[in-house]
Design goal:
Elements: E1 32-35, E2 38-41, E3 46-50, H1 60-72, E4 77-80, H2 99-109, E5 114-117, E6 120-121, H3 127-141, E7 146-150, H4 155-160, H5 168-183, E8 188-191, E9 196-200, E10 211-215, H6 219-225, E11 231-234, H7 243-259, E12 268-277, E13 293-295, H8 297-309, E14 314-319, H9 324-329, H10 331-337
Parallel strand pairs: 3-4, 3-14, 4-5, 6-7, 7-10, 10-11, 11-12, 12-13, 12-14
Antiparallel strand pairs: 1-2, 8-9
Helix pairs in contact: 2-3, 3-5, 5-6, 7-8, 8-10
Length: 338
C-alpha cells in the first residue's frame, strides 16, 4: 500500500447534518471514511507476531499451538528469532531451539501465514546452504517463506559455537551475494575472501524467488542489501517503539535507498513492536527508552495505525507475555487494523 495516503483524522462517517453515522459507533479508532457512498478503510497495516525465543522454555506442542492461534486470529505472519545462545548480559544463560528446523515444521503445519526468521544470521551457515534451506522451506510452505537476513551481533554465541565474529559485514557481503543470486536462479561462482561457490545452482529451483527482508540499520549493510531487498525490518529498541521514532528512522532508510539507486517506495518497511496487553508480563526487560505499548485492544490498534501513518507496511508484535492466550487476545487488534 502506498504511504502517505488519506489521513485518519478525516475518517469519520457523518450524516448530512454532521451528526455521527451508524458506522461511528463501530469505529472507535476513526479509521473509516465515506468515499462516494462507500465506507472504506483509510489505512491498514499487516500484523505479524514473533513466537517465543528465550522468554522461557517452550516445547514444540506449545509453539505449534501459538502458530495455529495466530493463523486462526488473522495474523499475517509468524516469525522466529535465529540465535544459538545468550549469556553475559546479567541474566541467566539461555538458548532457543534451532530456528530453521522449527520453521520447516511450522511451514508444514500452517496454511496461510507468511513465515520466516527474524532475522537469520548469515554467519551461522554457509551461504549456499542458506539458499538451499530457504528454497526448501518455501516449497514446504507453498510460497509463504520470507528470508530475513542480517549479519548477527551477539559475540558470545559466535564464540561459543566456534563461528568467526571478525569482519562480520565483509563476510555478510559475500554471503548475501551468493544467497540472492542462487535464489534468483543463477549459477554462481565466487572466489571470496571468506566464502566460495563454484558453479553452484539450486536444484530443484524455487517456483518463485522467496522475498528478501533485511534486518539492519548499519550503513554498510544497507548499502550492500538495499539494491536487491524487498523489505527492511527494524527492532523496536532501535526506534524507541514510537511512531515518531520510526518515522525518523524510516526517512533515513529512504535516503539509503536513494543512495543505492532504489525508489524508497519500492522497499517495504517492517517494524517490530513491543506490546504488553494489559500490562507487561515480565518476560522481557522494559526500558524507558523503548517502553511497551500497553492498554486495551483499541489503544494498541491505534498505536499500530499511527505506525502505519509513519510509514510502516508491517508491524511484527513482540508480545509480553507470549502465550497462546495472549496471541488470541490480540485478535481484536488485528481485525481493527487489517
Amino acid at each position: 500500500m502506498a504511504r502517505g495516503v488519506l489521513r485518519r483524522a478525516a475518517g469519520r462517517e457523518e450524516h448530512a447534518d454532521g451528526s455521527p453515522g451508524p458506522a461511528a459507533s463501530r469505529d472507535p479508532l476513526g479509521v473509516l471514511a465515506l468515499a462516494r457512498g462507500r465506507i472504506v478503510v483509510l489505512r491498514s497495516v499487516r500484523v505479524g507476531v514473533q513466537l517465543p525465543e528465550v522468554e522461557r522454555d517452550v516445547r514444540w506442542p506449545e509453539l505449534l499451538a501459538m502458530a495455529r492461534a495466530a493463523e486462526d486470529c488473522g495474523f499475517d505472519s509468524i516469525w522466529l528469532g535465529d540465535h544459538l545462545l545468550y549469556r553475559g548480559d546479567g541474566r541467566r544463560e539461555r538458548g532457543p531451539w534451532e530456528a530453521w528446523t522449527r520453521l520447516a515444521g511450522l511451514a508444514a503445519a500452517t496454511e496461510r501465514v507468511r513465515l520466516g526468521p527474524l532475522v537469520a544470521c548469515a554467519g551461522f551457515h554457509p551461504p549456499g546452504l542458506i539458499a538451499k534451506m530457504a528454497a526448501t522451506i518455501d516449497e514446504l510452505s507453498g510460497g509463504r517463506f520470507v528470508l530475513g537476513l542480517g549479519a548477527g551481533w551477539n559475540e558470545h554465541e559466535f564464540r561459543a559455537f566456534g563461528i568467526p565474529f571478525d569482519h562480520r559485514v565483509s563476510r555478510f557481503e559475500e554471503s548475501f551475494t551468493i544467497v540472492r543470486r542462487l535464489l534468483a536462479g543463477e549459477r554462481v561462482t565466487l572466489a571470496g575472501r571468506f566464502w566460495q561457490a563454484e558453479d553452484a545452482v539450486l536444484l530443484p529451483p524455487p517456483v518463485v524467488r522467496p522475498r528478501l527482508m533485511i534486518g539492519s540499520n548499519g550503513p554498510r549493510v544497507l548499502g550492500i542489501t538495499l539494491p536487491h531487498a524487498d523489505a527492511w525490518n527494524t527492532w523496536f529498541a532501535d526506534y524507541g517503539n514510537s511512531p515518531e521514532g520510526f518515522a525518523a528512522l524510516s526517512e533515513r532508510i529512504s535516503g539509503a535507498a536513494r543512495a543505492a539507486g532504489r525508489a524508497p517506495e519500492a522497499i517495504e518497511r517492517s517494524a517490530c513492536v513491543l506490546v504488553a496487553p494489559g500490562r507487561a508480563g515480565g518476560e522481557r526487560p522494559v526500558t524507558p527508552e523503548a517502553p511497551p505499548v500497553t492498554g486495551t485492544p483499541d489503544r494498541i490498534a491505534a498505536h499500530l495505525l499511527e505506525l502505519a501513518e509513519a510509514g510502516a507496511d508491517e508491524a511484527i508484535l513482540v508480545v509480553d507475555p507470549i502465550t497462546e492466550r495472549s496471541v488470541r487476545a490480540l485478535a481484536e487488534v488485528v481485525a481493527a487494523v487489517s
